[in-house]
Design a protein that fits this description.
The protein has helices at 8-20, 35-46, 56-63, 74-82, 118-128, 147-156, 199-209, 222-253, 257-264, 288-298, 304-330, 358-368, 418-424; strands at 26-29, 49-52, 86-89, 100-103, 136-139, 168-171, 192-196, 216-218, 339-343, 372-376, 382-384, 390-392, 406-409, 428-430, 443-445. The chain is α/β, with parallel strands linked by helices. The protein has two domains: 8-220, NAD(P)-binding Rossmann-like Domain (Rossmann fold), CATH 3.40.50; 262-445, Rossmann fold. The strands form three sheets. Strands 3-2-1-4-5-6-7-8 form an eight-stranded mixed sheet, sandwiched between helices. Strands 10-9-13-14-15 form a five-stranded parallel sheet, with helices on one face. Strands 11-12 form a two-stranded antiparallel ribbon. Bound molecules: nicotinamide-adenine-dinucleotide.
């Protein structure tokens, strides 16, 4: 049983006072792409952070000061670990002494396309066992509007405490954009949207995040904050789908879609450039809109934009394979037994994240047609295909291109030597406009 709480106004005043004097301690549950950088940012700001992850290898790595996330360097990690500002554990007992608990666990889709909330449920149930009056719990994992109120709140209130009176509960979406291009937008500089399940909860959460980021945007409820994240990601999914469809039209019309987008983006207002590509990847854009669609359907609403965008975006790997098939055919080769070299297998440039990467689907489709696949990726040494086959990367310099029938650019990593690629590969399909400065006849663009 939790200890009896002081009156709610006093509890909030205590939380505020602790925040303003910089004495809040933080626990971060889930130390992946989102949780680890956030834990380090909190450690820098508050000096008292414990990370909780069920993966003992990750915990051991943190304790040794070795990073396993692209955007976090060993030096950044070691600085906080050696100063004892940041530690890690697999044990949720660490929640007990913490004033703030951030939940950053995965929210994937099941094979059926339905949200898999089991990670949130498991984490919240473990937190509940160590709740005490005055704590702030914030869900940062992306989920459908209503998750914080309907799924998290009842579990945390099981012991008799009430959100807004005895403890604080809010949702605050993570807006991290992994990759070195976006390091200027470190966690501190990206405004943080915060919505509590009660006004007191919003106030406590805003008070905490003001210590972590430069700008806090308080909204009227956790539901609004959840919807903000889904709007941001659905906006990207729909616009990428629109420009992917435009790319297919441009192909028929004999127009270069990349030139069209680049010229259109010179308009100083009312237009934001999105680019076509071989398909969506990563944890967010291919997944999050379906959380919203699922919830909308439960309410009897059919979300047409999300579905159409999903269909167009997920058809892109198939389109790329068809284009490649046609190009090989024009060169007098069937796909079967053709040697296709894939350049870049991660879902975006200059990261090592393979989650939902379209390269995996493209490789699978080509292998089913009998193509012999090799790949190069400066960030990935080997990958496991959906059927369990392991494929080792082949360094470009070791003649991988000279021996292939066709090179397919899936990810335009900045480490690739494009002069070398253009010189060595006999035929190239470029799905990213990586070769925009080359005019050779053997280059074909999406
Ligand atoms: N990756 C991104 O770019 C990004 C951006 C914004 C939002 N998000 C959202 O943030 C959330 C986390 O995503 P991520 O990319 O960091 O995931 P991730 O897979 O990189 O990391 C999740 C971590 O949580 C751990 N974990 C799983 N269950 C746990 C539990 N019950 N308790 C403690 N730890 C547990 C895993 O071991 C893993 O280390 C998701 O909801 C995602 O949609 C991700």
């Amino acid at each position: 049983m939790p200890a009896a709480a002081p009156p709610s106004s006093e509890l909030l005043a205590q939380f505020r006072e602790k925040a303003r004097s910089g004495r809040l301690s933080v626990a971060v549950a889930g130390l992946g792409y989102v949780g680890l950088p956030m834990a380090l940012r909190c450690a820098r700001a508050l000096n008292r952070v414990v990370g909780i992850d069920l993966d003992p290898a990750r915990v051991a790595s943190i304790r040794k000061g070795i990073s396993y996330i692209d955007d976090v360097s060993d030096a950044q990690m070691r600085e906080q670990v050696e100063a004892a500002h940041f530690t890690a554990t697999t044990d949720y007992e660490a929640v007990r002494p913490s004033d703030v608990v951030l939940i950053c666990v995965p929210t994937p889709l099941r094979k059926t396309g339905e949200p898999d909330l089991s990670f949130i449920v498991r984490s919240v149930e473990a937190i509940e066992a160590h709740m005490s009056p005055g704590k702030l719990v914030v869900l940062e994992s992306t989920s459908y509007p209503g998750t914080t109120e309907e799924l998290v709140r009842p579990r945390l209130e099981r012991g008799g405490m009430r959100a807004g009176r005895d403890f604080y509960l809010a949702f605050s979406p993570e807006r991290i954009d992994p990759g070195p291009k976006h390091q200027d937008y470190g966690i501190r500089k990206v405004p943080k949207v915060v919505g509590g399940v009660t006004p007191n909860c919003t106030e406590a959460a805003a008070e905490f995040y003001r210590l972590i980021v430069d700008q806090v945007v308080a909204v009227s409820s956790s539901r609004v904050a959840e919807m903000v994240k889904l709007l941001e990601n659905t906006y990207r999914s729909v616009n990428i789908a629109m420009v992917n469809e435009l790319a297919l039209m441009c192909q028929q019309l004999g127009v270069d879609v990349w030139e069209v987008v680049d010229a259109a983006k010179t308009k100083p207002y009312g237009f934001e450039a999105f680019y076509p590509g071989p398909g969506l990847g990563g944890h967010c854009i291919p997944v999050d809109p379906f959380y919203l669609a699922w919830k909308a359907r439960l309410l009897g609403f059919e979300p047409r934009f999300i579905d159409l965008a999903g269909r167009i975006n997920s058809s892109m790997p198939h389109y790329i394979v068809n284009r490649l098939t046609d190009l090989l055919n024009d060169a007098g080769r069937p796909v079967r037994d053709s040697r296709v070299h894939i350049l870049g297998v991660t879902y975006k440039p200059d990261v090592s994240d393979l989650r939902e990467s379209p390269a995996l689907t493209i490789i699978d489709l080509l292998r089913r047609k009998g193509a012999r696949i090799t790949f190069s990726d400066p960030h990935v040494s080997a990958l496991t295909l959906p059927d369990g086959t392991r494929l080792d990367g082949a360094p470009l310099e070791q003649g991988a291109l000279a021996e292939c029938d066709c090179a397919l650019i899936v990810t335009d990593h900045s480490a690739f030597d494009w002069d070398y690629v253009v010189r060595e590969a006999p035929l190239i399909l470029d799905s990213r406009n990586a070769l925009k400065n080359y005019n050779e006849d053997h280059i074909h663009k999406l």
